[in-house]
Amino acid sequence: MKKIYRILFTFILIYNFNYSWAHFGTRGGPTGGTVTCFYADNGNNLLYFGTKTGGVYYSRNTTFTGWTYVNYIGLESPYITAITSIGTTTTGVKMVAATPDKGLFVSSDKGITWTATYTGLANTNVTALITKDQYIIAGTGNGEVLISSDSAKTFIKSTSQPGSKINSLITDGNNIYAGTDNGVHISADNGLNWSVAGSGLSGQKVNALIINSGTILAGTNGGVYAATLSGINWSLTNTGLNSTTVTSFAVNGNNIYAGTNNGVFTSCLLYTSDADDN
Question: The whole model's pTM is what?
Answer without folding.
Answer: 0.72
